[in-house]
Amino acid sequence: MRLFYLFLISILCYNCTGSKILNIAEQNPALLIAMQDSLLHKGRTESLASALSLAHNKIGLKEFTKKNYNKALKHYLSSKEFNENNIIANFHILIINGIILAKTGKKDNLWTAIQNYNKASQINPNSGIPHYYIGMAYQKIGDKDFDLILEAFESALALDLEPDLRERTKLAYDKEKSREKTLNDFWK
């Protein structure tokens, strides 16, 4: 039955206008990606490339949200194959590469991660996501450099964040502020 459904959709897509393919990318990105090879075999059009890029971005965001970074990265890289200048894909590739580097805990990798986050913030200056991860990386580099850590979290909170990440950022900020106060009080 699924094979028949895919066949039917593929016939429909062959005759689809660009807006119909984009609609499928919006409504059912996994289905469009499942049909990617057969659709491309029939010829790559600008509307098909846009739809496939959108579908990969949508699934990439879903995987990113679930912290399945390797799967998300795979979809964002696929999205770039269809649109090299894709802002969403380029932003998330930098963030994910930074997260992967930061997980190693090695100082050189943490500095490279911070560079990736800074590049991501230049791509999307309204997003607080890069600043949150900059703060987290500074914590790993040296947990007593409160100025850099707090500044990064303050920047994140001043920009766009999903509610869950805003909450985590606020908690991290409050924890660092408390640690800073405790340390300052100790040395008085």
Polypeptide structure, described:
The protein has two domains: 1-85, no CATH class; 87-188, Tetratricopeptide repeat domain (Serine Threonine Protein Phosphatase 5, Tetratricopeptide repeat), CATH 1.25.40.10. The model has no long low-confidence stretch (mean pLDDT 90). The termini are far apart. Helix 7 runs parallel beside helix 9 and helix 8 (107-123) packs antiparallel against helix 9 (129-141). The longest helix has 24 residues, at 163-186. Helix content is 81%, strand content 0%. It has helices spanning 2-14, 18-27, 29-34, 36-41, 46-65, 69-82, 87-103, 107-123, 129-141, 146-158, 163-186. It contains eleven helices and no strands. The chain is mostly helical and 188 residues long.
